[in-house]
Amino acid sequence: METITKQLYEGMFLVDVAKASSDWDGVISNITKILERSGSEIISIKKWDDRKLAYDIKGQSRGVYIISYFKVDGPKVQEIEKNLRLSEQVMRLLILNAELMTQEDIDRETPAAKAEKEGIKSTYDSDEESQDDERDFDAQVSEQGIEDEQVYDESESDSDDENNQS
To answer: If residue 94 lies in a helix (H) or strand (E), which one and from where to where?
Structure first.
């Protein structure tokens, strides 16, 4: 008979900002229950950050990332992923093997904890700020008279030069 040893995994879960802010304990409890139901030993579970998404997911433009470290039998990971995908609270998830992680890595301060400790908002907290950054970039590009095609052509020719030198 083969013995299966529990391995360390890192899970990153993306949840809806509205659900997370209205019922944080419920969201964490739901994820914890799913992990424990599969025989996981939870090492750590905490808020990683609140970010603007690159594209809308399920009609949402913002999300809260939750990071978790847990030990579980390898074959159970597929069951955990399936149950989390069926959960209405989790929009996206990623589970990776984290056997090479040290306890120092696991205990590392998250961007959300850093921002809270410093008493500042995350750089991603304001949609207006990101729109201002985009406008600043667009203004710099137009001041320099660079078109999108020129930026693309220059980067393409740079990679061609590198390939020719090899």
So the answer is: strand 90-97
